[in-house]
Specification:
The complex is a heterotetramer.
Chain A: H1 11-21, E1 26-32, E2 35-40, H2 41-57, E3 65-69, H3 74-85, E4 89-93, H4 99-109, E5 113-116, H5 119-127, E6 137-140, E7 154-156, H6 157-170, H7 173-184, E8 190-196, E9 204-209, H8 210-223, E10 231-233, H9 241-254, E11 257-260, H10 267-274, E12 278-281, H11 283-298, H12 302-323, H13 330-350, E13 358-361, H14 368-376, E14 381-387, E15 392-396, E16 409-410, E17 415-418, E18 423-427, H15 439-445, E19 452-460, E20 467-472, E21 477-478, E22 484-485, H16 487-495, E23 500-506, E24 513-519, H17 521-530, H18 538-543, H19 545-563, E25 573-578, H20 598-604, H21 606-613, E26 618-626, E27 632-643
Parallel strand pairs in A: 1-11, 3-4, 3-5, 5-6, 6-7, 10-11, 12-13, 13-14, 24-25
Antiparallel strand pairs in A: 1-2, 8-9, 14-15, 15-16, 17-18, 18-19, 19-20, 21-22, 23-24, 25-27, 26-27
Chain C: H1 2-8, H2 10-17, H3 19-50, H4 57-73, H5 78-101, H6 109-131, E1 149-154, E2 157-162, H7 163-185, H8 187-197, H9 199-204, H10 209-234, H11 241-245, H12 248-255, H13 260-281, H14 290-304
Antiparallel strand pairs in C: 1-2
Chain D: H1 5-11, E1 14-25, E2 28-39, E3 43-47, H2 54-61, E4 69-74, E5 77-78, H3 84-90, E6 92-95, H4 107-113, H5 123-128, H6 132-150, H7 166-179, E7 184-188, H8 196-212, E8 216-220, H9 224-230, E9 233-238, E10 241-246, H10 248-253, H11 255-262
Parallel strand pairs in D: 3-8, 3-9, 6-7, 7-8
Antiparallel strand pairs in D: 1-2, 1-4, 4-5, 9-10
Helix pairs in contact in D: 4-7, 6-7
Classes of the chains: A alpha/beta, B mainly alpha, C mainly alpha, D alpha/beta.
Chain lengths: 658, 358, 318, 266
């Protein structure tokens, strides 16, 4: 059942509608104090209303911007809606951002109010308060440690709600006024500003209207037949558009229940307890889970391992066919049933995925092995391609038309075209209203007739008719000899090995391709344990010659597969090294959504890049790092560069690549 | 593997603190109860009921009693047999004085007599612990045993010096004495054992259980969080002896139908202690496992050779049983010092994390 | 009033009027006490060195005696049988160390205690299986142990001293002396004491813990054999002896678990105490109080001196 | 960071006064005529070299040892010797240098055990574990969950404490003491054997306990940095005698203290 209707064009209106029609159904749960606390739609309306009226009493008015900072907790989601009910615009911010990064976004958005999780975030805001002239009030959820703070501009969430509740009692007009305020909201109103942590430069504030998000959400719900019975777990950053649409707007549109985990560390356990039916995650999550599976199974007894391997291999052959409803021999179906009892079912159950009806991977390319693995064991994993600027949905794979290397067909109401330069462009009701306070940039991205430049290079796969994405358009370069060089394409191939966590390929305008690699501490650490390799630190493990040998093998396999592809054969990796530290968002090497910031990395590691191309076999590097507690230090290392032998280009078997 | 815990979330503390929080476990318990109350009565022969099921249940209850004292509170007792005896003799006296009150009431009431005696012999636990306390309980064992023999009043001055169980009926159905059918007695024993197990489970999962375990794990710290050690220990003695007493009364009234004092000799104490240790200290389910292994194993050892047609002298079979049981005890302790319940837990954990090893 | 008289006056009047009976009772108590002390001694040896509360000590007494008699029944000459029995006790010690103590190292004491229960069962079954379950007569004569009795006249009657009892007291005394010398003078003895103080210390002076365990269990086995011969010669060799063996426990409570002099003194107190109690006060209660009197005496001690006669005062530290 | 509180604490009333307490074991003298007081709301440190009698002092305060002479006044009542459980009833909680957890029980049960004194449902209800008994369990579980949340040990609530790493066990032990809602919290080397990060966490918890719940804290600690940061007043023991008493700054400058810590110059 969808909550549709032309009058339901804002999220607060959906809230009031749901409170009426789904009143006693759960709207949110939060594992807190050891058990799942739940709120029905009716209760949630009451909570949000109290907060909203409290905020109004504090002076929040239509058009104000207010920040939301913290992890996924019901009260922060409520704050979004409470503000929206007043016509104010929430600006969710990445909670793990350091104070400095946060200051830029908050100052740019001119936020007047911050709703934050705890003392940690309050401290950050206090630290940069001199740069935030508009900020008048900070509201916190968790009072711990804040007792002795100066409360002249600080107030607890409970107190704000208290103000609202008191007002509701004392002023009989208040309720009607508030409801009138909600009714006054329009679909075309600005609903949220989401700052994208761009891979280059300062982040930009993407403005989305209610219409943008609600139409996209309804289309998505209809596309996958989502209704009020879904259970989802909210664990992705609040500032990411995916979470905003998926844990917030889609939930309000379909009326399903959003569950907030106890802590970020217990997401797997919490997901398992709830048994989510609809999931949305970047490939990294699926990859980590698979790595965990591999690592744990490596410690299992011989017999169990054999059984596991047999059934996984069997599922690899038949699982996807069964999932897609194809006809398979009865024997296969029977054996798959046994496999389901012994392996697939328990496996999905361990990770809380057995009730999944639809799971999406998005944000980046997923390794085909990983993608097929999850589908083979019976989870309906699909790909979608989206952007903040599109209110997420650009393309998605319909049930039964799933391919590991494509991202699907145009989502409902979305038009797509490939520009002459090979860039993917789209037009849809979800197209954003522009970048906040940056009309020049907006005009650059949105054409006069409403098409949006995605910045991604791609093409339509002739066989499946689905979109394929190669790389960021601006990252696609050429080697000196003119060979096409798509760094991400190569990096993804590397990253599909569990031992490789991150890779950076360099080669544009150079003679050949080189790669800097980050090993995966979980996978390689477990390998080290099994093989008696002793190490005291990440750095030591990364420098181990045996680890180098292992990674060299992976690189070699990647080269072989590149040699199979006509246009990529010249871009094989000739030299590589293993980095001495993990690439980290705190050091600006990754974005907060864990994407490479390529330019920054090549600057930072320029001595290494130089060493690649001047023939050195080792390279010295010192880098400044930021520790978890915020203080900085320098680590330096001498890294070994390993030489690889490329494969001759073969006659292409282009059945997939074309 | 069989455990599918997705979607089993708890939204109240009551649900979270339930004894069986996992759905599959609840189903398992229901199945076991169904089998015990319905299936077994339908399919069991009198032999099976009399020689296997009834004694197994009675020993399980005694083992639970001792487990509350030794496993949960950490007080080693070698007087179980005597406390069982107190229950049996008390029941005899009570039903003699008040023949018209239902004997089931007296079976349960005799537990209170046993509890009182238990408290009396638990008094030294104020000052002593460990093996020293074990010796104190031996005093109880031998003194009470002596009483059972030397005080004719206890066995109603019967010529044989043994308890002779009188016929008692409940709503016209004979439940004790020679006319009571095995099935009736089985169902009564089963009901009492199930009910008392439930009660024991309630106790150990609540404040009192935590209090006992605190005393067991670190008595000094327990005292420093405000627990009166003496009270906690005496309560453990009382509850433990209650269970043993009821088990003893059931043993004579619902199983043997008559008994001499030597039934409650030190051997019986040791037997129950074995059950508790092999089953697993500090677990209720272990008490059942232990009773099954220690009681049923010898029966199996005696019956299996003859079932295969191997001629074996009864005496030799008995001796062989001793050898095997002794060796098994050592072997079990070597393999899993925490008892069968621990093995069970490990197995269950394996099933829960399946297909992973951990 | 009458009952008070019976308890507090009458027994002492009897002692005074018939001193021969008193001396006879004391002697019987002394002999029983010596044998209790011997069982307790074997126990203390093992507890000191390996921290194991060896419940099987009593059954080792029976097992040793049974083996000796059993071998002789099968035609083995008495002294060869004695030698063979010593070998059997060594094999037992070795087996216990290998199959029981070593795998259970670092387990809690209650687990080790339970393991000795298992050993008890095993030995009961094994002994009967091999040598039969019926009571046997000790080969006292073949071992040149005296029989018959001295009758000492005097004290208004006579006192009868069984020669075997005298022998038992002498042999027990020799045994204790030998052990004392062994502990004080020999290298192994010093090692044993080191172990008793601290396993770490023992390891650091280069003594294998395993060897020491074998040695103490073997020593306890020899003590058990001696006890078994004496006790067997006085009554008969049967498994009913194990109940008497339990008497070692109150002896230990009195003497402390780690003290050899304590075991001896405790044994004597218990032996004499229960004989006096049985003879003079027992009839008041209908007799047979011997079965539990020892425990009650021990219990009384426990409440007033929990660490035993010779144990050190325990100061609990946290 | 918490400069303002020390003056206020100095004004607080006396919660516990130790007067001329002496204690010896056999011939060994552990405490000799020690006197000091603990005021409501303060963090009081007891420091001194090894064997100075610090732990003995705590053991006397919570009734585990009986002093041979001297007087202890707690909440205005003279208690020369009280049983440990009576001390607990009076509102004194305690953690130990070498941990005294109930190792066979889970984190949750350990902390719940700390609530034993606050639970009153009788034996009969405990037999049923329904109705009032269950209601009481649930109420206390809620309170315990607050402590779990406070100490950030949610992820280990159902793990047997014996299997936890040392630093977490220390935290659970603090949790159990907090569950008693004590007026006076005695901490015996709360940071012994911890790494820097764990020490910082523990310091934060101690400060929060003191500030948020107003619990009076008396702690023994070796790490002088921690002591100086945390405590309002410090008493210094050496060979069972008090050699100094005052604010951290005063104590730091005291000649006797310097001598005790650095050894007497010959």
């Amino acid at each position: 059942m969808q909550s549709t209707g032309p009058d339901l064009d804002t999220v607060p209106k959906l809230l009031m509608h749901n409170a009426g029609t789904l009143g006693s159904r759960p709207a949110m749960r939060h594992k807190d104090f050891g058990i799942w606390q739940a709120w029905t739609w009716a209760q949630m309306l009451e909570e949000i209303r109290a907060l909203s009226i409290g905020l109004a009493e504090l002076g929040v008015k239509r058009g104000d911007k207010f920040a939301i900072i913290g992890s996924n907790r019901p009260r922060l989601y409520w704050a979004m809606c409470a503000g929206q009910a007043l016509g104010a615009v929430p600006v969710p911010v990445y909670a793990d951002a350091v104070a400095d990064e946060m200051a830029y976004v908050l100052a740019h958005a001119e936020v007047t109010l911050g709703v934050v999780e705890d003392q940690e975030q309050v401290d950050k805001l206090i630290a940069v308060s001199d740069r935030l002239p508009h900020l008048q009030q900070v509201i916190y959820d968790e009072p711990r440690g804040l007792k002795d703070y100066d409360h002249s501009r600080l107030m607890s969430f409970d107190d704000v709600q208290g103000i609202g509740r008191k007002k509701l009692v004392s002023d009989p007009q208040c309720l009607a006024q508030w409801e009138a305020g909600v009714a006054a909201g329009k679909g075309s109103d600005l609903s949220v500003i989401l700052y994208t942590s761009g891979t280059t430069g300062r982040s930009k504030g993407v403005m989305l209207t209610f219409e943008n998000t609600i139409i996209s959400a309804r289309n998505a719900n209809a596309f996958d037949h989502l209704d009020q019975n879904e259970e989802v777990i909210a664990y992705l950053p609040l500032a990411w558009v995916g979470d905003y649409i998926f844990s917030y707007v889609q939930a309000y549109a379909a009326g399903y229940c959003v569950n907030c985990p106890e802590t970020p560390d217990t997401v797997v356990q919490d997901r398992r307890e709830i048994g989510t039916t609809y999931a949305f995650a970047p490939p990294r999550v699926y990859e980590n889970v698979l790595t965990l599976t591999t690592v744990r199974m490596a410690d299992a007894g011989w017999l169990k391992r054999k059984m596991f391997d047999f059934f996984i291999a069997f599922a690899g052959r038949w699982g996807e066919k069964i999932l897609d409803g194809e006809r398979v021999p009865l024997g296969v179906r029977l054996l798959y049933g046994i496999g389901n009892l012994l392996v697939y079912g328990p496996l999905l159950n361990q990770f809380g995925l057995s009730r999944i009806r639809v799971a999406y991977t998005a944000g980046e390319a997923i390794g085909p092995e990983i993608f097929r693995f999850w589908r083979a064991v019976g989870m309906n994993l699909k790909q979608l391609y989206g952007q903040t600027e599109a209110s997420v949905y650009v393309t998605a794979q319909p049930d039964g038309e799933i391919h590991a290397d494509t991202v699907g067909k145009a989502s409902p109401d979305v038009e797509i075209k490939i520009s002459d330069s090979g860039e993917v462009m789209f037009r849809s009701p979800g197209v954003f209203a522009g970048y906040y306070k940056d009309p020049d940039k907006s005009a650059e991205v949105i054409t006069a007739d409403g098409w949006v430049h995605t910045g991604d290079a791609g093409f339509f796969d002739p066989k499946s008719g689905q979109l394929r994405i190669i790389d960021r358009a601006k990252d696609v370069g050429r080697l000196k000899d003119g060979t096409l060089f798509a760094p991400k394409y190569i990096e993804n191939k590397l990253k599909f090995y569990p031992n490789i966590r991150e890779a950076v390929a360099v080669g544009a305008d150079r003679d050949f391709v080189c790669a800097m690699i980050n090993i995966d501490l979980t996978a390689v650490g477990s390998w080290a344990e099994r093989n008696g390799v002793v190490y005291a630190s990440y750095q030591e493990l990364a420098a181990n010659p045996l680890v180098y040998d292992m990674i060299a093998q992976h690189v070699d396999e990647v080269n072989r597969s590149l040699a199979d592809e006509e246009i990529m054969a010249g871009a094989q990796i000739r030299r590589f090294l293993i980095l001495h530290k993990e690439l980290d968002a705190d050091d600006g090497e990754l974005t907060r959504t864990q994407k490479l910031r390529r330019g920054h990395i090549t600057d930072r590691y320029s001595p290494l890049v130089d060493a690649f191309y001047n023939g050195s076999t080792t390279a010295q590097i010192s880098t400044e790092v930021t520790f978890d507690d915020g203080h900085k230090g320098v680590i330096s290392a001498r890294l070994t560069i390993r030489e690889m032998r490329p494969y001759p280009a073969r006659v292409a078997k282009m059945e997939r690549a074309a | 593997m069989l455990y599918r815990e997705v979607g089993q979330y708890k939204s109240s503390y009551a649900a979270d603190m339930a004894v069986f929080p996992i759905l599959q476990d609840r189903i398992g318990v229901a199945v076991i109860l169904l089998v015990a109350f319905v299936v077994l009565p339908l399919v069991s022969s009198n032999f099976l009921l009399n020689t296997v099921l009834i004694p197994f249940l009675i020993f399980s209850l005694a083992a639970i009693g001792l487990n509350l004292l030794t496993g949960y509170t950490g007080l080693l007792s070698l007087g179980t047999g005597a406390f069982m005896g107190v229950g049996a003799y008390a029941c005899l006296k009570l039903t003699t004085f008040f023949p018209n009150v239902d004997v089931i009431v007296w079976i349960l009431a005799s537990g209170f007599v046993s509890a009182a005696v238990g408290v009396l012999f638990g008094l030294p636990s104020l000052r002593i612990k460990g093996f020293y306390l074990a010796v104190a309980t031996l005093a109880a064992q031998f003194f009470l045993e002596w009483c059972f023999i030397r005080i004719p009043w206890l066995y109603n001055y019967s010529v044989s010096g043994a308890i002779e169980v009188p016929l008692r009926t409940f709503m016209g159905v004979p439940i004790t004495g020679p006319n009571a059918t095995a099935l009736t007695r089985y169902l009564i024993v089963l009901s009492i054992v199930v009910a008392l197990t439930w009660v024991a489970s309630n106790l150990v999962h609540g404040r009192i259980g935590r209090m006992w375990m605190s005393v067991r794990d670190m008595d000094l710290a327990a005292e420093l969080i405000g627990i009166r050690l003496f009270h906690a220990k005496l309560l453990a003695f009382a509850v433990s002896s209650f269970y043993c007493g009821v088990a003893g009364a059931m043993m004579v009234f619902l199983w043997y139908g008559g008994a001499e004092a030597d039934v409650f000799a030190i051997d019986q104490s040791f037997l129950v202690l074995f059950m508790v240790i092999i089953g697993g200290l500090g677990t209720l389910i272990g008490s059942f496992f232990g009773a099954a292994l220690i009681y049923i194993l010898p029966i199996a050892l005696r019956t299996i050779p003859s079932a295969f047609g191997l001629p074996i002298r009864p005496a030799a079979a008995e001796q062989l049983t001793f050898v095997i049981v002794g060796a098994l005890i050592i072997m079990f302790l070597v393999v899993e010092p925490n008892g069968l319940a621990r093995l069970w837990q490990i197995g269950k954990q394996k099933l829960r994390v399946w297909p992973f090893p951990y | 009033m009458h009952i008070l008289y019976q308890i507090f006056v009458d027994p002492f009047v009897q002692m005074g009027t018939a001193p021969d009976l008193l001396v006879q009772t004391l002697w019987d108590g002394l002999v029983a006490g010596v044998l209790y002390a011997l069982i307790a001694l074997g126990f203390v040896l093992i507890f000191k060195a390996s921290g194991v509360f060896n419940f099987a000590q009593g059954i080792m007494v029976v097992f040793a005696a049974l083996t000796l008699v059993g071998l002789h029944e099968h035609g083995v000459p008495a002294f060869v049988a004695l030698g063979l029995t010593i070998v059997v006790m060594f094999v037992l010690a070795f087996g216990v160390e290998r199959l029981m103590l070593r795998p259970l190292i670092n387990q809690s004491e209650i687990i080790l205690f339970m393991a000795t229960f298992g050993l008890t069962y095993f030995l009961i079954g094994f002994g009967q299986l091999v040598f039969g379950g019926s009571p046997k007569v000790m080969i006292a004569q073949e071992l040149y142990l005296p029989s018959g009795a001295f009758r000492l006249k005097g004290l208004g009657g006579f006192v009868s001293l069984q020669k075997i009892d005298i022998a038992a007291v002498i042999i027990a005394s020799i045994m204790v002396a030998v052990l004392a010398v062994f502990f004080q003078r020999t290298r192994i003895g010093r090692a044993l004491r080191a172990v008793a103080d601290s396993h770490q210390a023992a390891l650091s002076v280069g003594i294998s813990l395993e060897q020491i365990w074998v040695i103490v269990w073997f020593a306890a086995g020899v003590v058990a054999l001696t006890t078994g011969i004496m006790w067997g010669a006085r009554s008969e060799v049967s498994f009913s002896l194990q109940i008497i063996a339990l008497k070692a426990l109150p002896v230990l409570i009195l003497g402390g678990f780690t003290s050899i002099p304590g075991a001896i003194v405790g044994g004597l107190i218990i032996g004499i105490g229960e004989k006096l109690g049985e003879f003079y006060w027992g009839p008041l209660l209908g007799g047979g109080i011997e079965t539990w009197l020892a425990y009650v005496i021990a219990l009384g001690f426990l409440v007033f001196r929990p660490q035993g006669l010779f144990g050190e005062k325990i100061i609990e530290r946290i | 960071m918490r400069a303002p509180s020390s003056n206020e604490a100095a004004l607080g009333e006396i919660l516990l006064a130790v007067e001329d307490v002496s204690l010896s074991f056999g011939g060994v003298r552990a405490l000799a005529g020690v006197s000091f007081d603990i005021r409501k709301g303060e963090v009081r440190a007891i420091i001194g070299p090894n064997g100075a009698g610090k732990t003995s002092m705590l053991n006397v305060v919570n009734g585990f040892y009986r002093p041979q002479s001297g007087r202890i006044t707690f909440k205005g009542e003279v208690r020369t010797s009280m049983r440990p459980y009576a001390a607990a009833r009076g509102g004194i909680a305690r953690t130990f240098q070498n941990l005294a957890l109930f190792r066979g029980m889970t984190t949750l049960d350990n902390i719940l055990a700390g609530r034993t004194l606050k639970m009153h449902r009788g034996f009969f209800w405990q037999l049923l574990r329904h109705g009032p008994a269950l209601k009481e369990e649930v109420e206390h579980r809620r309170r315990v969950e607050e402590i779990i949340d406070f100490l950030e040990i949610a992820a280990i609530r159902k793990i047997q404490v014996g299997r936890l790493p040392y630093g977490l066990q220390k935290r659970v032990e603090l949790g159990r003491a907090l569950a008693m809602e004590p007026d006076l919290l005695l901490l015996d080397e709360p940071m012994a054997g911890m790494n820097l990060e764990e020490k910082e966490d523990m310091s934060r918890f101690i400060i929060d306990v003191n500030q948020q719940y107003g619990t009076t804290v008396a702690l023994i600690e070796h790490d002088m940095g921690v002591v100086m940061d945390l405590s309002d007043r410090v008493v210094v023991l050496d060979y069972g005698r008090k050699i100094a008493d005052g604010t951290p700054d005063e104590v730091k400058r005291d000649k006797d203290v310097i001598r005790a810590y650095l050894g007497e110059p010959q």
